[in-house]
């Protein structure tokens, strides 16, 4: 891929603990060439679709790249009650008069921000009406209630994510939507990268981080059988933080990882056996 002139990460992986201050770019450990792909998509004004299991780093990638590219970031976590008006805006009654109030999408379009719609397939289908003209080369937002057609400011970028594992026939992106996006798939990081993430984000040493990653790998091999979800990087980071705070590793894993994967007592007991063999 042709290199692109983007500022380097502002913070590199610390050897041990995480020390991200508020002024720093959120640290992101790259799995492949996703940062360059993101930057190229931004430069070409192409919308980006990020697929991947929950807790694998999609949000962190977007936060990291927004900081590197110097763009404001507007994030919306989509849910099944979220419709076009929630994104675009609505009229509100203030002191007896009606005023228009921009929604997060409209603000992002006007400001030239990166708009990140997390779990976009959860949103109501009427959001398609506003997504399509923004995602293709028109780059405009039609505001039905006011009759406005707002052109996206030059820096505007639409980024959406979803977890293909959750897909069913009722909840999937329509081909006409999917084909408007450049797509990027993230998965669990390679073990050594994941161990670096767990050490840095969870504040534990390399040995504990490696054992947590080994546990995740053992649990991921079971995935798909009785479990809806497998152990994510996010869960490993949570376990690492509990351990760094003083909890023994097996206890931290039970609370942050095993209990999160199932509510069924028998399943949790089986997971504990797997954990006991690794930890
Ligand atoms: P997703 O959006 O895919 O559900 P997140 O981006 O919120 O997942 O990641 C969850 C947590 O896992 C983050 O807060 C961070 O601590 C950690 N994490 C996952 N992947 C990475 C990565 N590549 N670099 C740094 N931290 C990561």
UniProtKB/TrEMBL annotation:
Keyword set includes rRNA processing: no
Domain CbbQ/NirQ/NorQ C-terminal: 194-278
Span list, region Disordered: 1-23
Residue ranges of every copy of the ATPase dynein-related AAA domain listed in the record: 47-181
Coiled-coil parts of chain: none
Low complexity composition bias: residue spans: 13-23
Family: Belongs to the CbbQ/NirQ/NorQ/GpvN family.
Name under which the protein is recorded: CbbQ/NirQ/NorQ/GpvN family protein
């Amino acid at each position: 891929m042709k290199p692109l002139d983007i500022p380097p990460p502002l913070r590199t992986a610390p050897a041990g603990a995480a020390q991200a201050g508020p002024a720093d770019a959120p640290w992101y450990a790259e799995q492949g060439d996703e940062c360059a792909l993101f930057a190229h998509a931004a430069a070409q004004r192409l919308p980006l679709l990020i697929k991947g299991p929950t807790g694998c780093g999609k949000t962190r990638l977007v936060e990291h790249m927004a900081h590197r590219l110097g763009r404001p970031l507007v994030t919306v976590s989509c849910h099944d009650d979220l419709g076009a008006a929630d994104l675009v805006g609505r009229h509100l009654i203030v002191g007896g008069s009606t005023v228009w109030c921009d929604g997060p999408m409209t603000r992002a379009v006007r400001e030239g921000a990166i708009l990140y719609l997390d779990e976009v397939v959860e949103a109501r289908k009427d959001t398609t009406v506003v997504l399509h003209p923004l995602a293709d080369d028109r780059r405009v937002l039609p505001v039905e209630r006011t009759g406005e057609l707002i052109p996206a400011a030059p820096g505007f970028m639409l980024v959406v994510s979803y977890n293909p594992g959750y897909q069913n026939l009722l909840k999937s992106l329509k081909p006409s939507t999917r084909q408007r996006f450049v797509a990027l798939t993230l998965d669990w990081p390679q073990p050594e990268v994941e161990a670096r993430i767990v050490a840095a984000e969870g504040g534990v040493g390399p040995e504990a981080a490696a054992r947590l990653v080994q546990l995740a790998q053992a649990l991921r091999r079971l995935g798909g059988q009785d479990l809806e979800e497998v152990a994510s990087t996010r869960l490993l980071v949570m376990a690492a933080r509990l351990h760094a705070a003083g909890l023994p590793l097996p206890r931290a894993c039970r609370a942050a990882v095993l209990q999160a994967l199932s509510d069924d007592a028998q399943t949790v007991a089986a997971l504990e056996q797997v954990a006991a063999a690794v930890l």
